[in-house]
Amino acid sequence: MAQAEYVQESLAGLDPAVGGVDPALPLYATTFVVVDLETTGGAPDGGGITEIGAVKVRGGEQLGVLATLVNPGQPIPPFITVLTGITQAMLVPAPPIEQVLPSFLEFIDDAVLVAHNAPYDVGFLKAACAKHGYRWPNPRVLDTAALARRVLTRDEVPNRKLGTLAAYFRTTVQPTHRALDDAKATVDVLHGLIGRLGGHRVDTVGDAIEFARAVTPTQRRKRHLAEGLPKVPGVYIFRAADDRPLYVGTSVDIATRVRSYFTAGEKRARISEMLGAAERVEAVECAHSLEAEVRELRLIAAHAPPYNRRSKYPERMLWLKLTDGPYPRLSIVRDLSPTDTAYLGPFTSRRAAELAAAGFHDAVPLRQCTHRLSLRTVTPACALAELGRCPAPCEHKITPEEYDDSAAAPFRTATANDPQPVVDALLARIDVLSRDQRYEEAAVVRSRLAAVLRATVRMQRLAALAGIVELAAARPAAGGGWELALVRHGRLAGAGVSPPGVHPRPTLITIRATAETVSGGHGPVPAATAEESERILSWLERPETRLVEMSSGWSSPASGAGRFRDLLAKAESGASHQLSTERS
Is 94 exposed, middle or buried (0-12, 13-18, 19+ CB in 10 A)? Predict the structure, then answer.
């Protein structure tokens, strides 16, 4: 049987999920455990470790040593014996890895793990923990080989092998392919590399880990932009030399998020270009994450930063409305007027609006021509009338009252209340096409059904929130106290956080007194963008959020589009075979 190829994993770096040492800890105060393994040479499958050597150091002082042979439970290949000098006889009395792991895991607790070609050693240790039921502590890891590639030039060392680096730094112990000797040599190499980091403005363990990773010269040159930023929720703005906003983002921890732009994890080409043009980062502190998200949306809409892709042009939203006149039709428009009573939206693109319009045209006999029809003058009918797809109001074959009942009224009902007739008509059409094995056409109708449901569900949710003059809500804050939000007509008018152990009422009174005055208007988003209202809805609908006060009830139609959420999910996932039997 062929042996599985071993693929080295990437290291955790500054991942927030990583435990252990604070990345801001200075290097001189950091406890390092330098480890080296000897193995049978196979893939990390939970075994194969023959020797572990580890040295604990801090501030140049040795704090402890752990060294042991390990019985791998399998024969040692002859070439490994030649390389390391470890024989089968030496390993017979040695403890198995499951007995060694508890002591080793205790030894590396609250320390930064260091190894030369660390992914290899860490891979074996993680696999052993997984196989024998021990939790891997996921420590921060520093790879001396990667660090050497960043610090030393080819003129200084021809390669980054441990033996080469040991000779260059004149280590007190030379590598011998035995775990403890190699670990001790790696300690001296680590200290030598740390001595070279000062010239690169690398002073903390987090900086060292990131410096070892492959970052661009621009990221390294501009990383000072992340200094001095607050570790609080808010919005950050990258600005150019002329103070133009280049990019706007949000985070629950501004300092950590901005710092991530200067790490190897940031690989987006447009962000690299943005960093080259950025000269400073401005932080806008916010009370909590909801306020930060809303402020981000508003700043992006106001300034249209060139390196933001989403939320830049909220004014480009489109609506699908029923025109006025005796024989109304569907029209895609940019704005609603106070006289518009039957409409659907907003849509983020013309394609989405056209897809929803096609869905209504499949379900109800709305005319599709753009002629202005007269009750006195007859206009020649188009091909749709001949195909039975239009009741030919242009030739006065249907009265305005009949047309309104059969075509216009279903649209009004579907958008404002119950889309059941439209949904039934589209499902019936999908059934017919599927029975005739016209699956591609059925898929087209399915996508139109999804567009209709998506738009109606969205609009009815937005309209329900926009109809509330004022709503106050609270959510438990992570550090104690309450996150508070005051919403008026679907717009965030005020936000704050009450201190732990203090009743939130006084804070809410202050927020209300200083909140933005918001006037209502026409449509489901009269005072805010649809995206802002949806962010607010998402925050309000969390299980931990509490509604404190409302000027009126918050409700949606019992027979509204919301009850078709499951059907919408199936339509969006392409489960057309399930749609034919769905009748919500």
Answer: middle
244: number of Cβ within 10 Å = 14
CATH architecture under which domain 27-213 falls: 2-Layer Sandwich (3.30)
* Residue that is written with structure tokens 């489109």 in the block: 318
Token readout for 365 is 């006999």
Per DSSP, 439 falls in state H
- Give dist(CA 430, CA 414) in Å, integer: 19
**CA proximity to 453, closest of 529, 344, 328:** 344
Question: Are the C-beta atoms of 213 and 207 separated by less than 8 Å?
Answer: no
Task: Please pick, among 132, 177, 191, 396, the residue that the annotation labels catalytic.
Answer: 177
- Pull the structure tokens for residue 243: 């103070």
Residue 320, both tokens: 């699908």
Please state the φ and ψ torsions of residue 139, each to the nearest 5 degrees.
-75, 165
The residues, any chain, with a CB within 8 Å of residue 315's CB and separated by 6 or more, are: 301, 334
**From CA 283, how far away is CA 297, in angstroms rounded?**
15
Name the pairing type of β-strands 31-39 and 112-115. Answer: parallel
Q: What is the pLDDT of residues 15-43, one digit of tens each?
A: 434 556 788 899 999 999 999 999 998 88
Active site residue 132: no
Contact at 8 Å (CB) between 294 and 314? no
Write out the DSSP string of 319-333: EEEEPSSSS--EEEE
Q: What is the CATH code of the structural domain delimited by 217-303? A: 3.40.1440.10
Work out the number of other CB atoms within 10 angstroms of the CB of residue 309: 9
The answer to whether the CB of 443 falls within 8 A of the CB of 426 is no
pLDDT (tens digit, 9 = 90+) per residue, 511-562?
A: 999 999 999 899 999 999 999 999 999 999 999 999 999 999 898 888 899 9
Longest Cα–Cα distance in the chain: 108
Helix, coil or strand: residue 262: coil
The owner of tokens 């206009």 is 379
Torsions phi, psi for 338 (to 5 deg): -60, -20
Side chain identity at residue 289, one-letter code: S
Distance, CA of 86 to CA of 479 (rounded, Å)? 54
Kind and range of the H or E run holding 104: helix 97-107
